[in-house]
Amino acid sequence: MKVLLIAESREGKLLNSCYELMAFAEKMAAETAMFLVGSDSALPQYGGKLYLADVSAAGEYNPDGHKQLILDVVAKEQPDMVVFSHSSYGWDLAPRVAFALQAAQISEVVDVAGSTMVVPVCNAKLRRDVAPKTAKTVVTLQAGAFGLAEVPSAAPVVEKLTSQSGGKIEFTGYEQAESGGVDLGKAKIIVSAGRGIGKPENVAMIADLAKALGGEYGASRPVVDSEWVEHNRQVGTTGQTVAPKLYVACGISGAIQHLAGMKKSEFIVAVNTDKDAPIGDVADVLVVADLKQFVPALTAKIQAL
Amino acid sequence: MKILVCIKQVPDMESKFKVDAGGTWYAKTDLAWRMNEYDEYAVEQAVQLKEQVKDADLTVLCIGSEKVKETMKKALAMGCDRGAHIADEEADKKEPFQIAGIIAEYAKEKNFDLIFTGMQSQDRGSGQVGILVAEMLGMPGITTVVHFAYKDGVIEAKRELEGGVKACVKVAAPAVITCQLGLNTPRYPTLPNIMKAKKKELLSVPAADLLKVESRQDTAKMYFPEKKGGGLVLEGDPAALVDQLIKILKEKTAVLG
Ligand SMILES: Cc1cc2nc3c(=O)[nH]c(=O)nc-3n(C[C@H](O)[C@H](O)[C@H](O)COP(=O)(O)OP(=O)(O)OC[C@H]3O[C@@H](n4cnc5c(N)ncnc54)[C@H](O)[C@@H]3O)c2cc1C
Q: How far is it, in rounded angstroms, from Cα A5 to Cα B247?
């Protein structure tokens, strides 16, 4: 078994997720090679062979170009599997590579058993064992599912790739997330509102509980997308990552992208009408209740303490 | 301009799921169905584009049983002009490569200037179909789009990356766009538009006519994950629950004192 690991860099920095790819390869007991569009000055600690395309020529986002580079490496290395992170880079590129290789693609793998891959279904309420039917496969790995490999104090054997410029999509630059306002990262207690609050007026109820506890309030993405709460209060992969002493998730189902932003909290309380909501997997306490009754009652009791 | 938007009907994620008798998918009984959330943004963006360019014809495509027509009618009421229903009782057994194959087969030679899809479905969540359609048709594809603008044949879009950073990209039509949550504010169909939608064309084609590719993967088994947490579950009268939770917070954390 040989796997080609697709590392990533963003704004000149190597992303740590390459060590997750290495952990996956270890679990598979597979031989590895690695591919990176990056630079000499930000190489992974990796004992194997690294195919490096210089970012100044290849661009950080150029799916046509990156696909071709990966296909060239596949032709040389003949891996059984090409492994991406299930990230904005990976889920964009993996289907392109899979299509070109006529390979099955299995997305968001959370576990493996032999050649069978385990993937989540329906917001992680269910799981599926998937078996590829093609000789080569392309997989994307859910962030965090395989942990980080122990970082070897090794330097890769670098083979440089030359990339053709061009491609149909022109990348014109990054736009940073808005900064300023509240810094959730500093809050010791966070109470977050999810779609289960139902309407914008109910944000106040969540903010009141946060205040009674001496903390800040946050939100899940739909609440921010609906513009009920500003983006700098969004918790999750595309928002803030927080680890307060207490996190109270109100009306939040517990999608992986939300969990990624709060699961390291010291103590987690979830308030949800759905006893099977995946937030229950990370919650120390799951209160099965309608937040519209429970939250104001809790706030009143805490204020009276 | 010709626009295609591809949608999927999915169960409400708050449903109580059961594994079906075959053991490889969830049982379709006792579920509430709706339009895949990501696709609502795709439909809205397609309708906005049609309104912007005026001279446009917008087709909504959906693969599935007779029942998915309900969801297609919502898309028609939101502003799509016509529906292409790909009739398939076994749509849930098809993997993304086959679904994309069906869509590409339908779309080829129809010269769509833009194809919108959701970035993923809420149930299967593979996130492959849009890009595979693009590759199959030889069109550029942009994923995870949270901002879309169109002018004189050129699309300016923003892709959402981790941490809320966005990548700005430019591409000439024809192109495939996969839509991320928050791209726009999907409209609610108005009653007059719901009535109008009933008269819009909604033709069915059997999936078998369009399926030209083999499946590349099989689901061996579907099951419930083992519960990890071992966290405490509190149920019952809300007032009593408040007292129980306060007691726990006092014992297990230092936040109340
Ligand atoms: C690439 C990508 C990035 C993303 N980034 C993020 C991110 O950074 N942060 C984020 O949060 N999400 C993110 N998401 C979205 C994520 O997948 C989920 O869609 C989102 O987290 C769902 O938010 P929610 O739990 O509030 O809503 P839902 O999933 O709709 O859950 C609502 C919950 O409220 C409960 N509920 C309903 N009514 C009540 C009531 N009266 N009382 C109590 N409970 C009730 C329901 O049982 C349900 O569990 C991202 C998605 C993608 C694809």
A: 49
